[in-house]
Amino acid sequence: MQDKKRTILEAAIRCFSRKGFHATSIQEIAREIGMAKGSMYFYFNSKDELYLSVLEYYTDMLFRCMEELPEDRELSSRDKLRVLIERQFRFFREHLHFMRMLFLEPATGLNPQVQNLLMRTRARSAVWTLSHISAIYGNRAARYVTDAATMFEGMTGRYLEKLFFDDAELDEGRVSRFLINRIDHLMKGLLLTGEEPILPAPDMNALREKAGWPLEAEAQQRNGQLEELKRLVSAIPDSVPPAVRTEAASALERLESEWAKLVPDKLLAKGMLALLREYAAVYSWTEWESLLDGLESK
Questions:
Q1: How far is 111 from 116, CA to CA, in rounded Å?
Q2: Nearest to 63 by CA among 221, 190, 213
Q3: What would the DSSP string read from start to end of 219-243?
Q4: pLDDT tens for residues 117-159?
Q5: Average pLDDT in the 294-298 region?
């Protein structure tokens, strides 16, 4: 994303947070960053388009804060979810005024594009929650995963409402531990009683499709292609300059890291693929071509 466009979006978030969407003018947003009003229209055709872009930017920021970081990789599945919930609450606290605006101006959600974005965000959230709960409790609790995710999202949502509307002083670490303990108790109770679940098992492919993410089979295929490309990169002959070997390995590592994210940076991924393709062309590494073609189509 262009730096100027990002600057406008962040200014719009501040202005919408202070006055709301309807009461904020393009002129006020332009004044916030010292830009001429007319120049704003080089980037956004209307306030509605700007608002949609703000929502997309904001939801991308939210999901990035809910991604696993390198330092989280050694944590258990349970502790990973606890840490990510803590970050989620911290993110909402830091953007409290904007969240209140979203709740208090529901009319802004009547735009069909906004509705589509909200549906996509809801599906992303469902995939995120279901995946983490499945990772914690495994196959023994598979029949209850939808009910557990629904109850967990309900509890989390109510505490967020306390934060948004009641100015509750919530300690993110304590809240995340408390919520994880509650879902433990819920799941243990369900497993103990063996009662029939209320909700059926989730259709993860349907949810991933709504979220705009690759289906499980596609993700597995992409991971397989990445593994094969890693093998080829590690086998680059010593006759190739060390700088090229290092850059190819680094590009592949960044590509793998980006695609592991909930909201990957598509431009960055495309740039890494272009760099690898350039090396393949220069050194006539024909084995790379079909793999790179497949990865670029994802």
A1: 9
A2: 213
A3: HHHHHHHHHHHHHHHHT--TTS-HH
A4: 888 889 999 999 999 999 999 999 999 999 999 999 999 999 9
A5: 71
Burial of residue 186 (number of CB atoms within 10 Å: 0-12, 13-18, 19+): middle
How do residues 18-61 score in pLDDT, each as one tens digit? 888 888 899 999 999 999 888 888 888 888 888 888 888 888 88
pLDDT band at 244 (very low <50, low <70, confident <90, very high): confident
Q: Of 52, 129, 124, 61, nearest to 91 (Cα)?
A: 61
> 127: Cβ–Cβ under 8 A, 6 or more apart, which residues?
204, 207, 208, 211, 213
Residue 293: partners with Cβ closer than 8 Å, 6 or more residues away? none
Q: Name the one residue in this structure whose structure tokens are 């995120």.
A: 128
